[in-house]
Design goal:
CATH class: Alpha Beta
CATH architecture: 2-Layer Sandwich
CATH topology: Double Stranded RNA Binding Domain
Shape: globular
Radius of gyration: 15 Å
Strand content: over 45%
Number of strands: 6
Number of domains: 1
Distance between the termini: 10 Å
Largest sheet: 3 strands, antiparallel
CATH superfamily: Alpha-isopropylmalate synthase LeuA, regulatory domain
Structural class: alpha+beta
Length: 136
């Protein structure tokens, strides 16, 4: 079966702030054949904690797809104001076989920075995932 032309889709995103001072994120990614990959994470309620929680949920969903051949580690996530807009930037470490590389992704997230953190992870990993799927 050829995977060329098939894409991973950002299917669903849920984020909630809990009464105990924590937050929870859930990301659902869907492959072209209908398989779904879910990632969940919890964090603390703060701007940095919420962004990290959402980015980590996306990393966990991605790892369900690529493990054991590849792994990701969230190095950092930050929302910055640039050009009169909020941009969420993520930094990831990607491990494949015996080598690792650093990935950076960004997403213009004016209305919803937590969701933007999840999408920034996907932007960071698009190229490496495209290469991964084309060699499977």
């Amino acid at each position: 079966m050829s995977t060329q032309g098939e894409r991973l889709r950002f299917e669903d995103f849920a984020f909630e702030r809990l009464a105990n001072g924590r937050c929870r994120a859930k990301v659902v990614l869907t492959w072209a054949d209908g398989r779904q990959f879910v990632g969940e994470a919890e964090g603390v309620i703060s701007q940095a904690g919420e962004l990290r929680c959402c980015a980590e949920a996306t990393v966990r969903a991605l790892e369900r797809i690529v493990q054991p051949k590849m792994g990701f580690e969230l190095v950092g996530v930050k929302a910055v104001r640039a050009f009169d807009a909020v941009v969420v930037i993520v930094s990831l470490s990607a491990r494949q076989e015996s080598r690792s590389s650093r990935l950076v992704g960004a997403y213009l997230a004016e209305a919803d920075p937590p969701r933007g953190a999840a999408l920034a992870v996907l932007n960071a990993t698009n190229r490496i995932l495209g290469n991964f799927f084309s060699t499977r």
